[in-house]
Amino acid sequence: MNWLDNIIAFVSPRAAAERQAYRYVLDEQKNYDAGNNMRLNAGWYAQNNSAEMTDRYDRDLVRARARDLERNSDIANSVIIAYKRNIIGFGFSLRVKTPDEELNKAIQEYWIEWCKAKNCDVTGEQPFMQMMRMAVQRKKVDGGILFRKCYTDGGMLAFKLQALEVDEIDANAIGPVHGKDNKVVAGIEYNRFNRIEGFWLRQYDINGYDINRSEYVPAKDVIFLYTKKRPSQIREMSDMAPTMTRIRDANEFMTAISVKERIAACLAVFIKRINPPQIGRTRESQTIKKDYSGKKITPGMIRELNAGDEIQVVNPSGQSSDAAGMIKLHQRMIGAGQGLSYEATSRDMSQSNYSSARQGIIEDNMTYEEDKELIVEKIFDEVYETFVISLLLHGYIKPKDFWQNKGSYLKHEWVQQPKPWIDPQKEANATKIALNSGVKTFQQIAAENGKDWKEQIDDAAEALEYAREKGIEIGGIIYGKSEDELYTDEKTDE
């Protein structure tokens, strides 16, 4: 009942009852069960607010709880590690695709060198791929991460990256703004189209203490990685939010079961005395009383009790016969809430075969691809463009028409290192059929295996040439060669 119903009820209980009765009738006539306010939905309160209004009051608390689970929950870490392991995996290789082959090789070599910790990280602690793995983990737990482009002395290039946590966005900053129609919301400055113009970032000393001064950093110098789920969303929210309560329930359930089983495993003994010792000035019993204090039960122990003493063993019964099933159910629901299979998060393959494992991997990969696409476009591509321009400004590359044909000189692709096969023979046969039927090209197959197709052909040609010189046929790669052609040198020697 609202305030008006309460007033009416105070003045006329009959009228209030009639209002409530008619309200129930209207609820029953609604077309959606989820839209009625009957008994089963009576406690379900929801509001239609913008994404920022919905998130702003819970963002910090949800992030803190997600970090707590990251520190203390093995189930939470199983989800986090699964994402980090599959999105970045063994890393990505750069394939430069400019019109100049020599330039392509040079840029790729420079990229390999720049990705070392001393060149890409402003702190000099993490290689580029390790920074990306950290980015995946922080996005999953915190909801996002920031990378600031820095230009400092030392290293191969002046251009380096500084990793920043989303906590460093000063949500209390109010300006000043750097545009006529700009506004600052949650520490981020937007133009009138809600495009990010800059960030207000807190400044910390080396001990991590806030020095109470925020610095404005233009958007062109900051990479902000987060998943935008609603048009009105402007800040991050932890990806773990939908499953955090379930993870906590599972952790508490396992703790309770563990404690119960530990208690059940303990053997406790009480001594029940039928004739308790008399109190007062009575003559002491002629029998010598045994003192049980400090005594322990040991294997094979034989001890004599006092007359009338009886042993009662305390053996608490455990109620965890279905604990394994409950844990599996929790893990399935947690994984499903994060778009992953039970096998991907639990590492339990006891009920899997090749077909089910392959189907699970396909579905899981579709989930990983969403974040992979985001991180490649938001971070990899952005960093690569700045890297190439830095190479140009430092004189490492010197294409004269770079600025006139900037797009062609920035063409590239990222090739992820391949994952191990479940069944190498089946995978190889599938690849062969796809190639022979034209479903896939050799370039596509090479890319899926993390290799450059031209380099692979060159390597194969080199191996074939060497094998031909030695008169050896290798792996069925040589086709259409007769025995006389293969063993010409040996027959000539004879």
Largest sheet: 4 strands, antiparallel
Poorly predicted runs: 490-494
User: How would you describe the shape?
Assistant: extended
Helices and strands, in order, run as HHHHHEHHHEEEEEEEHEEHHHHEHHHHH
What percent of the residues sit in helical stretches (DSSP H or I)? 40-55%
| Order of neighbouring strands in the sheet with most strands | 4-5-6-7
Structural class: alpha+beta
Distance, first to last CA: 107 Å
Record field, number of beta strands: 11
Mean pLDDT: 82
Strand content: 5-15%
Helix tally?
18
Rg to the nearest angstrom?
35 Å
Q: How would you characterize the overall build of this protein?
A:
The protein is of the alpha+beta class and 494 residues long. Among the domains are: 3-46, no CATH class; 53-256 and 351-417, no CATH class. 46% of the residues lie in helices and 13% in strands. The protein contains 18 helices and eleven strands. It has helices at 3-11, 13-28, 51-55, 59-72, 74-87, 101-114, 117-120, 128-142, 244-264, 323-337, 342-346, 354-394, 406-409, 424-436, 442-448, 453-470, 483-486, 488-493; strands at residues 92-96, 144-151, 159-164, 183-185, 188-190, 196-204, 210-218, 222-226, 268-273, 309-314, 412-416. The strands form four sheets. Strands 4-5-6-7 form a four-stranded antiparallel beta sheet, with no helix packed on it. Helix 4 (59-72) crosses helix 5 (74-87), helix 5 (74-87) crosses helix 8 (128-142) and helix 9 (244-264) packs antiparallel against helix 10 (323-337). The longest helix is centred in the last third of the chain and has 41 residues, at 354-394. The chain is extended and about 105 Å long. Mean pLDDT is 82; it is low at 490-494.
